[in-house]
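Let us practice reading a record.
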Amino acid sequence: MELKLNTVMHGFLLKDKEVISDIHGEGYLFEHLKSGARLIYIKAKDDNKVFSISFKTPPEDDCGTPHILEHSVLCGSRKYASKDPFNELAKGSLNTFLNALTYADKTMYPIASCNEEDFHNLMDVYLDAVFYPNIYTKKEIFMQEGWRYIVNEETGQLDITGVVYNEMKGALSDPESLLQGAISRNLFGKTTYGFESGGDPASIPDLTYEAFLAFHKKYYHPSNSYIYLYGDMDIDRCLAHIGDGYLNDFMRTIDLPEIPETKGNNLQTSSKETYPTDSDEEKGYFAYSVNVGLCTDEELTMALQVLSYVLLETNASVIKTALMEAKICDDVEGWFDSSTFEMLFSIVAKNADLSKVSEFEKTINKTLEGILRDGLDQELLSSSLRRLSFLLKEEDYGSTPKGLIYGMKLMKSWLHGKNPFFCLRHFETLEKLKNPNYDWISLVENHILHNEKKNILVFSPDRDKEKEIQRAFLQKMQDKKASFTEEDMMQIKEDTRKLEIFQHTEDSPEILEQIPILQLSQINPAPSIPVYTKSRVGEGKQIFVPMQSNGIIYLKLHFDVDSLNEELLPYAGLLTDVLGKLDTKKYSYQQLPMVTNKVFGGLSFQNDVYSENTENYTGFLTLKSKFLKEDIAEVAELTKEILLNTNFNALDSLKKIIRGAKIKGENYLLNYSHLEAIHFSVGQLSNGGKVNEITSGIDYFHFLVNIDKLLSQKPEIVIENLKKTAECLFTQKSFYISLGCEEDDLDKSIELRDYIYKNLEPGKDRKLKNFSFDKNPSSIGFTANSTVQYNIFSADYRKLGYNYTGKMQVLRTILNLEYLWNEVRVKGGAYGSGCSFQQNGISYFYSYRDPNVTETYEIYKELWKKIGNFYATDREMTKYILGTINRLDQPKTNAERLNDAINKEYRDFPEDFEIMERNQIIHTTKNDILEFSVLLRDISKVKNYCTIGGEGKIIANKDYFDSIQKLIP
C-alpha cells in the first residue's frame, strides 16, 4: 500500500519518508498523536521481519534499575499471566531473534520472525509486557530477577542472591570489564554515562521495590518510546495492532527524560584505581580516554571508527608501535564506543609497566603531534577504508538479523532527537571519508590531542582486593543482620517463603494457553539441507557451496593436524596466533596488515575439529578468508606468502605477538569460562575434544604462557618447532579446501586452489592417523578471580550404549527451558544454564554465572527423575517441537552456510541426515521423552565435572573434584 505524507493511520501521523538506498529500503517516520509514541517503519524485501520497542532509560545510580526492569517486565503481564512468557515464547515460536537489551541510556525489546502470525504473536507479548507488567502485583518478580536476602538455615548467615545480581557479579569479574566502568566513571562522573546501568553488585541491594516501580512508571510510557518495524510486512495490520491495541490507552505526557552533555566539573583529568587479581603479575593497565563528541554526527562516528583502527588496531599503527617500542606495555587496543550520546575513545595499554604512566601520556601526545606535522600513513588509511567498505557491503552480522542492526544504528540519532535515517547512509558517509582532501588532521587535533575532556587512568592489580571485598561484604551482612529487628528477620523469611511458593507453583493450563503458538502444519516440512559439491584435491577434499554472494568469495584452506606428532600439536595452535601477523620474506611486521587489508575483507587462522564419534575426528589448522573476486590474483600471492614465507626468526615481532595473544587469551578465558570449561570437560572423553583442547583450549593457554617464558630463555626451541610444524602442515598431503561463491566465479577459485596446491611440498609419505588419548573422566576445579561459577558436566552416551536420535533435540529443549531454567536459573539464581546432545555421542550440561557449585551438580544428577515424571499435553508437545525446529531453521549467512556444509562432510553425516532428524523431531511424543529417563540416569553416574570459579567456593566444595588448579597460572 502507498503511504502518503501527513495522513493518519490507526492514530499514527506519517511525518516523513525517505529512500534509503544503502540498505535497499524506504524509511517512514510516524508519530502516534494521542500517546506521543514515535514509530519508524523500514520497508524492505526481507522476510525476516523485525519489531522492537525501546525506551530512554538513563540510570540515576549504580543500582542497575534499567537492567533489573528489563528482566522483570518479561515475567508476566496483563494478558499473559504466565510467570515467564519470554521462556514460553522461546519454547514454542519460530522467532529468529528474541531478547531484551540494556544499554547505558536505553532499553530495547527486539524480536524477529519470518512467519507473519508468529511475528504478531511475539509483538503482542512484548507490548503487553512493557506497558502492563505484573511487577506491580508480584513483588516476587523483583526478588527473583533483581536481588533478595537469603538466610543460611544452618549457620544463620545473611547473604544476597538474584539473577541480575549474580549476572553482574560475573560480568564485572574480569579486569577489562572493570576497566571499562572505571573509564566511564572518571570521564563522566555522576551522570548518565558514569553510572553502571547493568548494576554494580555492591549497589544493587540499595534498590528498593518502591524505587523499582517508580522507574517503570516514569520511563515506560509511550511518549518515551521508540517503536521500530522492518521488513516485508502488512504495515496497516501492524499499525492497527500497535496503535489500536495498545497506544490508544495512553495520553501524551511532556515529562520526558533528557540526556545533557557532561559538564566539565564531572571530569577527573587523572585517576588511579585498582582491581582484584589472584596473579603475581605486577603489571596493569593505562587508559588515555577522551569524550570525542556526539553520536548524532554520523560522519564523525565513522571517521573515529576508522581512525581508531588506523592508530591502534594493526601492527603498523603508530600509537601502538610507539607504546610497545618504548616498552611501556605488552599490548595496545583502541576502545571506541559510539552507542552513547557522548562517544568515548580510549587508548588502552595492557600489561603496562605501572611506573611509566608519565611516559605513556607523553608518548601518545608526541605521536599525535607527529601526525599533525607529517599526516597519517596514507597506505594504512586507504587499506582501513577499504576494509570498512567490504564489511558494509557484506552485511554479515551472524545470528542477528540485519534489520535489527539497522534499528540499533538509527537509535543513535533518533534517541536524541536527530534525523534517524542519516545513520543508515553508510556509503554516502564513507565516500566523504575517501575524499583525498578529508581533514583527518583536524580530527586528531581537535577531538583527541587538544580535547580538554580527557582522562588518564592508572588501573593496577591488587591481590588483597577480592579478600577485602569479601570481608567488607560479610561485615556488611553481619551489620545488616544485627540491625534487623525480629520482625525484619521474620519478613525476610516470609518473603523467601512467598518466593518459593511463586517459583514452585506451576502455571495452570489456562494461563499457559494465553501464550499464542503456531501449529506444526505452519512449519516448513522440508529441512534446510546444505547444498554443496565435493571433489578431491590430491589426497584431500574440496567442498564447494554455490551462493548469491555479491561477488564475495569465502575461502577456507584446511591442513590436517594429524600430519604432526604429539609434541608439535600445540604448535598448531601457536601458528594460528602468529600467521598473518608475523613478518614474511616480502613484508615486515608493520607492512603486512596494510597489505592484507587491501586484499582481504577478512583473514584469520583457527583450529577446527570435527568429531564423528569420541574416537574418530578430522582436525585442521584452517586459513579463513573472504575477498572480492576481482582481487583473486593478489589473494593467491599473499596467501602463499603467509603460508610458506613467514619469517619465524623475527624474534622481536614474535615476542610482541605472543604477549598480545596471551593477554587476549586470558581475557577470553575469564569472559567465556563456560565455553572453555565445556571444551576441557569434553576433552576428557574424546580424541577430537582433546585435540581441540590442546590447540585452542585451557591446555593451550597454559602452553602459551610457557611459550612466552621460553621465548625469553630459549627462543630457538620455539622458532625451530614453529618451523617444523609449518613444514609438516603446509603440504599437498595435508591440504583440503572449502569455498563458497557465485557459480560463475568457481573457475577463478579453482585457479587459486591450484596455484596454492602446486606451491606446497608433497609432504611425507605416511598415512595420516588420528591421535589417540587416554579417555579418563575426571573432575577438576579451576580457580579464578571470580565471584561466580561455571559448572560443567559431560558424558559419552554412546559408550553407555545409546545412539543419537533427533528426539534428543526435543529433550534438550525441554531440559533447557523447563528444568534447567527453573532449577538452575530461576531458583538457583544463575544467569544461565543449558545442555546439549551431540550426534557424536557427547552430552554436556552447563551453568553460567552461577552462585552455586554442589547444588547445581545435584540438579544435573537428578534430571532423570524429573524426566521420569514428565507429562505434557498435545499442545505442550507441539510447543516443544516448534521450539526445537526453530533452533534448526534460523536464517543463515553465507559464511554459516559454508560452515554447515563443512560440518556435515567432516562429521560424516548421512546424506539424508537432516530429513531423518527432522522427521524424528516432528514425531516425538511424550512417551519418547519419558524413555530418556534411563539415558539420563546412566549419564548421571559418570563423574566428569569441570568448574571454573572463585577459589573459596571451589575449595568449599573440594570433595567434588579430583584436583584443583589455577585457571591463570
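A brief commentary: The radius of gyration is 28 Å.
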